[in-house]
Structure formats: structure tokens, C-alpha cells
Amino acid sequence: MMKPASNTPGRTFRRCAALTVLTIAAGAAGAQEYPHRPIRIVVPFPAGGLADTVARHVASRLGEALGQRNLAVVVDNRGGAGGSLGAEIVAKSAPDGYTLIMVIDTHAVNPHIYKSLRYNIFTDFAPISLVVKVPLSIVAHPAVPVDTIKELVALAKGKPGALSYASAGGAGTAGHLAAEQFKLLAGVDIVHVPYKGGAPAIADLLGGQVQLSFIAASATVQHVRANRLKAIAVSGNQRLAALPNVPTTAESGYPQLDTGPWVGFLAPGGTPSGIVARLSAEAANILKDPDIRAKLTEQSMNIVTNTPAEFGAFVKSEHDKWGKLIKDANLNIAQ
User: Fold this and answer.
1) Which residues of 15-37 are buried (b: 16+ CB within 10 A; e: fewer)?
2) pTM confidence score
């Protein structure tokens, strides 16, 4: 009697089914193993800035949050070109959850400035979560004879081009764009003086070389309290706990001035959705820690977390909003 052929349809089906089960099991095991080696968080700016501060707080707890108490989470500072050099490194990294990036608001503006970017902010990154927002403060040297936005507008209209404002980081930063938005809304002419960072901008403001600045409130609180600077308003519709007597831009008649620097968490595009969702959830849990919340809020940072989809939509809205402003204000900042 003839033996049945070794590759009967039934046996072939059973082998395929078995292989499928093994493949699914292997994939599940691989997913469960994440993370099993060090994670790198790229900060596309020098140490000590806003993104770096937030990244180091998150990094200090991320390994434990992911179930690996002894896992190394390293912050890697790669500054240059408004954050675009570090962003390019991450955009070209393996989408496996082991290389991440902590960006600031310039991430959404850079496509309008750097025409030779070698990445796409929408397709080459996987949004994880927004992390913090920082209100801007509109501050003046004490010698400037204004105490309110209304008085500032009147002074600027009376002396077109006589006042100057410092921006920390230069063209395309939150302070620069907010000031240009204010100039459009109020119909005033104030001269932009760009600086390479917050420290030199504030130094010249304290020295009277410039009269004004639209700058992160966290950088000015101590100077306002010491009466070395005069706070005219803070952006948004909520007063700062650190400066409770300073009105908001909404109270001052400019509700459109509700922006400021922000920090967000991204992975390379194509990172598995399961890893992205897990990182988003754990980042939110880390930022609920009372110690970390206290350290960030002491620096006038508002913790604002969201889902990957919500953060992606936020980046798109920031990109579109500032692109329109750059066009409307005829800002020649492209490089």
C-alpha cells in the first residue's frame, strides 16, 4: 500500500499554522522584552536649557517606569541649527524605541526657516507626548516708562522704531514670533535684536542696551522680584503663581498672545505604536510625581501631557500658525 505523500494539504496547513503561532509568539516576546538595553534621549541643544532640564527629569525615572530599575537612560546633547542637527540624528535612527528626542517649539517652526532640512517633521517622527508649556513674560528695563501693555503700545506708537526687544535664541523662537505677533496686533514698530541664548539677552536687558524682551517667564521671575526688571504681562489667560500681581495678555486685551515655549517627546517615524503608547503613558506617570512636579513648577513650567495623536495634531497646528505669521509679518528668516 502506498504511503501518503509527506506534503499533503492538511499537513501543509498544520505546518503553516504552527509557524504562524510561533511567529506571533516570538513577536509578542520581542515586544515584551522592550526595553532590554540603554535608551538615549537626544536633546538638540546645549546642556542647561529648557529641553535639557525636562529631559533629565524624565530620564531619571524612565528606566524604573518601564520596569527596568537599572536601565541606563542617557541624555545626549547635540546642539546646532535651532535644534535641527539633533533632530536629523533621531530622524535617521532605528525606529526601535531606543533613540528618542526632547524638542522645543522651534521643531515646528524650523521647516519655515531651514529650507535644506533633511527630514520631515511629520513623517520622520512619531509623536509621544507634549510635556510642558512655559508662559512668556513681557518685561522691560525699569527705566522704560510703562507699566501696562496699553502704555507700551502708546509709547511705541509715539516713537516708532525707538524701542528694541531682545529675543533669546534669535529668529523663529517663541519670543521672537510672539513679539512679531504683538507688533501686528498692536500696529507698532519695535526693533528685533536677536541673541544666541537667554543669558546674554537678559544681561543686555538688565544693562539697558535693549528696552524689552518677550522671554520665558522662568528666566525673569528672580529679576522681577528683585525689581531689576519690570513685568508688564505674562502670556495666556492664567496668572503665574510666582508673579500673582502681573496681569495676563488676555486681561490686557490681547488674548491672541497665548503662546510660549513648549517641550515635547518624539521617537523616530515608524517606531511601533505599542512602544510609542507605552512611552507616552509612562512619561505622563513620571510627570505626576510630586517631586518632579514641584521642581518643574518652581521654574514656571506648566506640565501638559497628551496622547501621541493629540501631540501630533498640536505640532501640526503650531507649524501652520507660525507659518502664517511669518508670511503675514513678511519675516525674512529663511536660511
Assistant:
1) eeeeeeeeeeeeeeeeeeebbee
2) 0.84
